[in-house]
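Case study.
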Amino acid sequence: MHPAYSVIFFTTATGAGYGLLACLGLWGGLGLIDAGFWFRFISLGLALGLISAGLLSSAAHLGRPERAWRAFSQWRSSWLSREGVAAMATFVPAGLFSAGWALLGKDGGWVAAMGLLSAIGATVTVSTTGMIYASLKPIVQWSSRFTLPVYLIFAAMTGGVLFNALLSLFGLASTPVLALAFALTVVGWSWKVATWRHNDALGIGTTLNSATGLKGGEVRSIEWPHTEENYLLKEMGFRIARKHGARLRLIAQIFAFGLPLALLAAAFWLSGPVWLAAVLSIAAATAQLAGMLVERWLFFAEAKHVVTLYYGR
Amino acid sequence: MTCLPASTERKLGLVIDLDTCVGCQACVTSCKEWNTGGHMAPLTDIDPYGGRPDGVWFNRVHSYEHVTEAGGRTVHFPRSCLHCEEPACVTVCPTGASYKRTSDGIVLVDEDKCIGCKLCSWACPYGAREFDTDVGVMKKCTLCVDRIYNDNIAPEDRVPACVAACPTSARHFGDLGDPDSAISQLVAERGGVELMPELGYKPTNRYLPPRARTENGAKAAAPALETLKAEGGFLGWVDRMLS
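After joint prediction, the assembly is written out as follows.
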C-alpha cells in the first residue's frame, strides 16, 4: 500500500494526542497531579493540538476536502464514518474538561467525570481508527487480530511517554508514570515484533488461480492491460525493497522502543539534577514519535493488497 | 445509505467467457468511449499523449499464461466491477456516496457525495474502482446503467457497451438472480465460477473457464500445397523440360 504522508502523520499524531488526552483526563480529573495553570494549559493544548492537526491532515488527504462533513453520516456501516463521529464527540467532554481543569483549575466532581469521558472517547476513537484497517479483507497484513491492539497500545504508549515528559518538564516527575511509560514501551515493542513475525509467516490464501478462476497449474501474468502504472499500481501496488524493509524495521525499533527505554531508564536511575531527568524524558518522547513515523510508514509499505496479484506481483 | 439491501429484485451482471475472449481490447475502448460521456463522465486521462499516460478505465484486459499438465494456454482476462452481493466498497464508504441498488443490484457512486477518501478502492480486492485525480472522486463501472434502461436507443443496443462491442460474443449480460435466464443457464452449462470466493464478497459476475482441449484444432504441420511426386503425362514432360 502507498504510504501517504498525510495518513502517516494523522494516525501517529492523533494516536499520541488521544493517549495524552486519556492520561490527562484520568490523572488530572482525579486530582492526582498537583499542577499549576501552565502545565494544565500546555499539556492539554499539546494533546488537543496533536489531535486537531492529525484530523486536519486526514482531511487534506481527501480528493474533495470541502465535502468532509458528509463523512459523519454513515456510522451504521463505515468504520471511517464512526471514526469521524467518535473524534467529534470526544471534543465535547475534552472541551468541558479543558475548561474545568485548565481554565478554572478544578479537580474532581464533574471535571473528573469529563476527564473520564475524554479518556473513554479517546479509546473509542483510536479503536475506530484501528478497525478501519483491521476490517479490510483484501490486505492480509491488516485484517489480522494484531491490528486493533497495535493502534490502542501505541496510542497509550506514545501518550504515556509524552505525559511523563511533560510532568518532568514542569518538575512534577512521578515514578509511577515513568514506570508506566516504560512498561507500555516494552508492551509496544513486544507486540510489534510479534506482529512482524506473524506477518512474515503469513500465507496468502488468495492466489492468481482464485483471482482469475483458472483452476490447477500455474497462472503467470504475461501482459498488463496498460504500459504505465495506473491508479491501482500507484495506490495499492507500492513495493518496498526487502533490504530497506529490514533496515527500516531496525531504525523503527531503535527510535520507537530501544532509545526511549534507555532514556527512561537513565531518567530513573541517574541521580542528577531535575533538569537532566526532564531532558532525558523529553528526548525519549521525541525519539519515540520519530520512530513511530517510521513504523507507520512500514505499516503501509509492507502491506500487500490482493489486487496486485492480477499484475503478477 | 451504505448499509446493503437484504436482497435485490434482480442481480444484473456480466458473464465473461475466457474460452472465446481473444484479448482484442474492443470492450475496453468501447467502455471508455461510452462512459467518458456517460453517467460517471468524464473518464479523465492524465498526460494521454506524453511519456507517462494514466487515466480512469472501468475495464482492463490482462493476459495470462495458464500452465497445466495438459500444456500451456494463453488466457485473456477482462477485469471490471463484479457488482458483488457483499460489496465492502459500499459499506466502508463514510458519506453514502457508494450504494447498491435494491432494484437490480448495480453498485454505483454518487459523484456529488464522494469525498475522495479512496477507502472503497482499498476495500475492493478486484481493483474495480479507479480514482479520478482531476475531479477528486472515485469512479467505477456502472454496468452502463445509462444504456440498459435507455428508451432512446434501439432495444438490441440496451446492453453494456462492452457486451455490444465484443466481436467474439465472449461477454454476456443478464439477470444472474433468475435461474431460468439465458445467462444463468449459460453459467450452469459451462460451470461458471466466481472470483476470489474465499474473501466472501459474493460477486455477481461469473467467468466461464476455457473449454477442455480437443484434438480437432489445426495441426502444426499443414499439408503441402503441391505434390512432391513428379507428375506424369504432358504436364510432367513440360515440367521436366523446363526444370
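Observations recorded in class. Chain B has a mean pLDDT of 93. The CA atoms of residues 91 and 209 of chain B lie 30 Å apart. We will return to this complex in the next lecture.
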